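Long-time lurker, finally posting.

We've been working with Undecaprenyl-diphosphatase (Eubacterium aggregans) and I want a structural starting point before designing mutants. I don't trust myself to interpret raw outputs, so I'm hoping someone here can both generate the structure tokens and explain anything notable. Sequence follows.
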Amino acid sequence: MDIGILYSIQNDLQCPFCDVLFKGFTFLGDKGLLWIIVTALLLAKKETRYAGIVMGISVALSAGLVQFGLKPLFNRTRPYLAYNYPILIPAPMGTSFPSGHAATSFAAAWSYFCLYKNKLRWGLLTIALGIAFSRLYLFVHYPSDVAVGIIVGLLVAYMARWLADWIIQHCHLESAIPPISGT
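Top reply, 14 upvotes:
Generated this for you. Predicted structure of Undecaprenyl-diphosphatase:
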């Protein structure tokens, strides 16, 4: 089923515009750079510092869990290698399951989404979805890799909020990191 979905995406959606669009989305997710920048911007202002801490924990935990825990455990070959399929980006290193791009993007976007009720939360979630889908379009992950990556990201975002609260309370950082108001 996984490979059938990938071939359907290639047959039904592939075009020069989508090639550029989804290479761009994947680039945004590379090394979690977009999410690190958003985290830094949130940390810079006292009013959004709590969200920055939650997002930073989410990004670090999801990246570490996927890269050093789940990928080595499952050791799944990427679809472009398994099916000798030509890809549009430099060949990603490492194994396929689960998608680190999807996990990190959804951990970051969902951590913000749960904290704020503004338009930016929808933008970040849309970017996360674009990054996740780009991994399918570019034939570097199976749909199950991306689906599990999204689930990992969502769960990590919830854990990160709990962990941030625990760190703030136990390190007596309440004055430096005010709670979010007006969400």
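Before you design anything, note these points.
The longest helix spans residues 143-170.
The chain has one domain: 1-171.
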